[in-house]
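User: Hello! I'm new to structural biology and keep hearing that structure can be predicted from sequence alone. Could you demonstrate with Lipoprotein? Please show me the input and the output so I can see what each looks like.

Assistant: Of course. The first part below is the input, the amino acid sequence of Lipoprotein. The second part is the output, the predicted structure written as tokens.
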Amino acid sequence: MTGHPPGPLWTGRASNRAQWLLAGAGVACIVLGIVLAVDSAWSSGMVPLVMSVVGCVAAGLLILYGTLAFVHVHVTVDAEAVEVRCGHVGLPRRRFAFTDIVSVVFLPRISPHEWGGWGLRWRPEKGTAVVVRSGMGLELKLESGKIFIVTVDDAENAVRVIRAHLRALAR
């Protein structure tokens, strides 16, 4: 044994190219704010101009982060946990130790409409979900009674790997 941690047991991801269009809207808001700041002939005073510039830039940054954070999701199953990372930076990030997972279920169809849209979602009657596109995913039932759902390609294999690991830990 070399002392290096073993590699992942399974990895998968899901992407949503439509999010790039929304990111473009965020960039457009930022550009509008910059154009207003640089080339503005507002006659109604400085305060409305500053409010408009700050509002456009802030809205653009929020839209940009909100969309780029959920362009894709990456799920990794290793010997200790299931980790879910979103976007290019990997935030938000959730890590679920196998000792906290009670069961896992394959979901053939997850829709953003049932969760109120794309992104990191929470619904008191359903739990928490990371939904980056319609399609397959998996559901983790946690020791706390909470549910966590994530859309990910090849979710059936992820469920098989997680179940096998949960059985091995139960022995």
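User: So the tokens describe the shape?

Assistant: Right, they're a compact way of writing down the 3D structure. Reading them back into a model, for example: The mean pLDDT is 87.
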